[in-house]
């Protein structure tokens, strides 16, 4: 994990949120999501306050609203599922614009939309202010099993390698006049997928042999020791602590 690795979700910046140690941001994001999930769905005002808290974090991190909203599109499948719930759920029915909808389904749809959107927004803010390499170091600092951290590290690095290999193969096909237009071209694409699998497997074998020859024995050396001061922990946990106050009010009011 010594080499840097940028990703499309990351937005370079020098804000106080960017400067926080990665493990503090990971802990804060996880705690915030737990608090949001624990909030009763009937407390709609609480979810509005959670959105305000995330907006404040985005403002402090200098993450534009457009940047955040564009990456929230990843939850479209969950939105589609939530939209269907009022139609398929059972129980008491209510008429809305001439449609017979389930009351439990409406509450369930609201629950999925509100909590899912807030959770995705928190994750996007985390990814926008933390590089992948730092995330891995943060997971390591939080004592996640080393084998899982290594698997995640290899997936991140070689995902881009395989994607680049696919791009080169596509350019090679197009330079020879090939263009997939129908079912009859699926055979060529299948052969390309097979060749990509073989190349990826061989590359993995070469990387493993290179690691073993350099003394790899099941664990990666820790190059950077990530630490956090009490003030940094306080700044990072301000978000979940404020959310916890809102959650408790949601249960009591």
UniProtKB/TrEMBL annotation:
The chain crosses the membrane at residues 43-60. InterPro entries: ABC/ECF_trnsptr_transmembrane (IPR003339), ECF_CbiQ (IPR012809), ECF_transporter_component (IPR051611). It is a multi-pass membrane protein. Keywords: Cell membrane, Membrane, Transmembrane, Transmembrane helix. CDD domains: EcfT. The keyword Nucleotide-binding does not apply. The keyword Oxidoreductase does not apply. Pfam families: CbiQ (PF02361). It is found in: Cell membrane. PANTHER family: SLL0384 PROTEIN (PTHR34857:SF2). NCBIfam families: ECF_T_CbiQ (TIGR02454). This is Cobalt ECF transporter T component CbiQ. It comes from Streptomyces siamensis.
